[in-house]
């Protein structure tokens, strides 16, 4: 897989499609809801309502078809992962001018269930058409789309009438790349832009960036500058290893009002599922002046693994920093 920001996630360096590795992502509750609409004749609708179809109960058959499709989506969609589905619902309603289908699929896993919800809605619609095709050969499925999704790195989304929109964007964020060679122009900074792109995908529309050498004074100034600008999430990349110039953790640790050791350990543990080298990162996490500050390793792949772990937690972290209550059941 290419490492640069914005690189295709399902294409390798040779241009071949492949299944994305989701092993570093945390297991979170993920829910997706989709709808579909089957337009058909008044006669077909009337016979569905009255139970007069020769094949039987179209709504019941469509519900079962949708549930089966949700469970077997990975066999139908080439790059979809096999996942364990915690629960699924398929509702079929015979409306005034169409059959309305609504699906909801839930999993606790490392990847979402959007395709499962969409596939369930689509196949349920196909089952309706199969049940009524002798009455209406012009029946069609229209307007299959997601209406909501939650969980995972991209957060919660809902349909406000013009497509899915993010339920609650993240506050302004900052990215600081710490590297002597990048700061001197001797090497291209890949980790910083990768981190910035990941934060934007997670819901931060306003992301500032800075590039500094492995110097304690400049790191300190950059972090405090970001916090002073009102950046509520500040992530550094680089300088967390064992080299003599790797001073990012010590510098940031001295600034912390409160330490959050479990967050840094969680990031290390997530990275260790991909490479044993992750255990060498001395990253720290904590609060500086009301902002979350986390130090991440310096490679683009390590940054991607870290944000995959961190992103689902950010909305709740920001809420806690703002004085919000703990979510029930969390």
Short description:
This protein is α+β, with helices and mostly antiparallel strands. 34% of the residues lie in helices and 24% in strands. The chain folds into 2 domains: 28-151, Alpha-Beta Plaits; 173-321, Molybdenum Cofactor Biosythetic Enzyme, Chain A.
Notable characteristics:
Alpha-Beta Plaits; Molybdenum Cofactor Biosythetic Enzyme, Chain A; six-stranded antiparallel sheet; six-stranded mixed sheet; 11 helices; 24% strand; disordered N terminus
Commentary on this structure:
- Helix 2 packs antiparallel against helix 4 (114-132).
- The longest helix has 19 residues, at 114-132.
- It is elongated and about 80 Å long.
- Residues 1-6 have low confidence and may be disordered.
- The two termini are 34 Å apart.
- A 6-stranded antiparallel beta sheet has the order 2-3-1-4-5-6. A 6-stranded mixed beta sheet has the order 8-7-9-12-11-10, with helices on both faces.
- Strand 5 and strand 6 (164-166) form a beta hairpin.
- It has helices at residues 42-50, 58-71, 73-76, 114-132, 180-183, 191-202, 216-228, 248-253, 261-272, 300-310, 314-321; strands at residues 28-39, 85-94, 98-109, 140-150, 157-159, 164-166, 173-178, 207-212, 233-237, 258-259, 285-288, 291-296.
- The protein is α+β, with helices and mostly antiparallel strands.
- The protein is 34% helix and 24% strand.
- It has 2 domains: 28-151, Molybdopterin cofactor biosynthesis C (MoaC) domain (Alpha-Beta Plaits), CATH 3.30.70.640; 173-321, MoaB/Mog-like domain (Molybdenum Cofactor Biosythetic Enzyme, Chain A, 3-Layer(aba) Sandwich), CATH 3.40.980.
């Amino acid at each position: 897989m290419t490492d640069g920001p914005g690189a295709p996630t399902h294409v390798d360096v040779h241009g071949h499609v492949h299944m994305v590795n989701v092993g570093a992502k945390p297991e979170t509750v993920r829910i997706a809801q989709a709808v579909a609409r089957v337009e058909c004749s008044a006669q077909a609708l009337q016979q569905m309502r009255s139970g007069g179809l020769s094949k039987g109960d179209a709504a019941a058959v469509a519900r079962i078809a949708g549930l089966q499709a949700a469970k077997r989506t990975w066999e139908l969609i080439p790059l979809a992962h096999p996942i364990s589905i915690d629960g699924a619902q398929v509702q079929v309603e015979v409306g005034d001018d169409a059959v309305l289908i609504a699906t909801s699929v839930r999993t606790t896993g490392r990847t979402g269930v959007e395709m499962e919800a969409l596939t369930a809605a689509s196949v349920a619609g196909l089952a309706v058409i199969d049940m009524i095709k002798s009455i209406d050969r012009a029946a069609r499925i229209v307007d299959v789309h997601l209406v909501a999704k939650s969980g995972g790195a991209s957060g919660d989304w809902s349909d406000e009438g013009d497509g899915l929109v993010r339920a609650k964007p993240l506050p302004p964020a900052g990215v600081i790349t710490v590297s002597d060679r990048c700061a001197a122009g001797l090497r291209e900074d890949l980790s910083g832009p990768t981190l910035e792109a990941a934060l934007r995908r997670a819901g931060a529309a306003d992301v500032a960036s800075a590039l500094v050498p492995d110097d304690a004074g400049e790191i300190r100034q950059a972090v405090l500058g970001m916090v002073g600008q009102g950046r509520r999430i500040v992530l550094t990349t680089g300088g967390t290893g064992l080299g003599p110039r790797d001073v990012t953790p010590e510098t940031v640790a001295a600034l912390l009002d409160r330490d959050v050791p479990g967050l840094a350990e969680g990031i290390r543990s997530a990275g260790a599922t991909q490479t044993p080298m992750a255990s060498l990162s001395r990253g720290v996490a904590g609060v500086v002046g009301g902002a979350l500050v986390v130090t991440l390793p310096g490679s683009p792949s390590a940054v991607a693994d870290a944000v995959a772990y961190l992103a689902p937690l950010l909305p709740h972290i920001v809420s806690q920093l703002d004085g919000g209550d703990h979510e029930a059941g969390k």
